[in-house]
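Please fill in the sequence for the structure shown.

STRUCTURE ENCODING:
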């Protein structure tokens, strides 16, 4: 029987079914688990969560004499219907990237915590609770619906230390955007997101000294890293609620269209559409991110490089859809306009991939900063156009990420 209780009534041995309130507010990455440690109760009470649902059939009930609100009582008051209706209304109305950045930053921060916990549990040999990832994927998916570029761009700004965890979040968001671009249905989009989130789970079984090595891996070390698809697949197999798409993607996201990938050397039609999607998303985030041994490439330059590799590496149709989903000049790309000013892409224009919105901030003629100004290159009458992509390392603007996101480093 489900019962809603106050957090002060929680005791060790209860089965916590769900937190009341926003997923962003509660302190754990998953919502359903048996409370086995009193410290977890302290953590819940220290959060903004005031009530939770417990399942008395799976764990302890309230002590005799303490009152909670049973599901039957809630249904009698029709309150549960109102709660269900409120939860069903998800905020997915489209907004600009600028309007979504702050909210996306909160989701990214929460996602970092969630995925870190998931990997740590897997590293300790605990069963992987894939059901607990559903709310995380839902939040990421809703953010991508509101503004495809905001969360994807912020998730790219990871440090070398948290690369493994934030890479999973970024690939999840990229998979959701790509799935929608390919016209997949809602269930398939959700499966793509879960698969992206879990695709590198097997890296939890790779020694940290190899995973975080600042220099080039030896052949022996790289051979160990290449075991992560099979290790991740083995971790997920015992889970009763694992999505079959996730199992497939975890095992096959390093396969290549020409059959030169691993671990099975599959080729062409033998590779599922989801694994082909993951191959593109995985590589894009990897090469645009800072790693222990190299700085990430500019987003636009990364797409150019991937286009060079696309023959044999990626499925051509999937790669073309991927470019459409993030833009030829993704958010954060540094570009030079025909007026001689440098700007950074802050928004895509769905009707013209070559004409995004650009915030200019530097005059190459004067070699000086100028008052930032936004140009919508797709607006009728706009005479500005992009003549080249620029290498950020050449110009070395220390605040480039703040210019396009509008967020201070501490908030990202």
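FILLED IN BY: designer on duty
SEQUENCE:
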């Amino acid at each position: 029987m489900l019962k809603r209780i106050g957090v002060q009534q929680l005791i060790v041995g209860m089965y916590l079914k769900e937190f009341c309130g926003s997923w962003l507010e509660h302190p754990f990455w998953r919502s359903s688990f048996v409370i086995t440690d009193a410290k977890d109760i302290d953590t819940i009470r220290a959060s903004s969560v005031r009530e939770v649902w417990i399942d008395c059939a799976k764990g302890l009930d309230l002590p005799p004499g303490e009152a909670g609100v049973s599901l039957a009582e809630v249904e009698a008051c029709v309150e549960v219907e109102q709660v269900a209706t409120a939860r069903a209304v998800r905020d997915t109305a489209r907004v600009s990237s600028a309007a979504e950045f702050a909210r996306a930053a909160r989701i990214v921060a929460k996602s970092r915590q969630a995925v870190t916990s998931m990997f740590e549990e897997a590293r300790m040999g605990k069963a992987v609770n894939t059901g607990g990832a559903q709310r995380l994927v839902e939040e990421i998916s809703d953010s991508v619906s509101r503004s495809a570029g905001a969360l994807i761009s912020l998730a790219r700004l990871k440090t070398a230390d948290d690369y493994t965890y934030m890479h999973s979040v970024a690939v999840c968001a990229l998979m959701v955007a790509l799935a929608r671009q390919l016209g997949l249905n809602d269930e398939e989009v959700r499966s793509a997101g879960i698969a992206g989130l879990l695709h590198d789970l097997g890296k939890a079984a790779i020694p940290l000294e190899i995973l975080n090595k600042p220099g080039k891996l030896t052949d022996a070390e790289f051979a160990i890293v290449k075991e992560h698809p099979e290790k991740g697949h083995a971790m997920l197999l015992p889970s009763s609620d694992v999505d079959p798409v996730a199992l497939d993607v975890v095992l096959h996201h390093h396969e290549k269209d020409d059959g030169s990938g691993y671990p099975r050397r599959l080729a062409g039609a033998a590779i599922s559409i989801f694994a082909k999607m993951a191959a593109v998303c995985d590589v894009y985030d990897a090469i645009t991110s800072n790693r222990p041994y190299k700085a990430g490439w500019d987003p636009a330059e990364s797409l150019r490089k991937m286009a060079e590799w696309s023959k044999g590496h990626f499925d051509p149709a999937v790669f073309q859809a991927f470019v459409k989903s993030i833009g030829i000049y993704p958010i954060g790309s540094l570009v030079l306009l025909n007026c001689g000013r440098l700007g950074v892409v802050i928004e895509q224009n769905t009707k013209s991939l070559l004409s995004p919105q650009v915030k200019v901030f530097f005059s190459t003629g004067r070699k000086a900063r100028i008052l930032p100004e936004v140009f919508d290159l797709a607006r009728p009458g706009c005479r500005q156009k992009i003549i080249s992509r620029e290498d950020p390392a050449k110009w070395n603007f220390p605040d480039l990420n703040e210019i396009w996101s509008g967020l201070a480093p501490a908030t990202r």
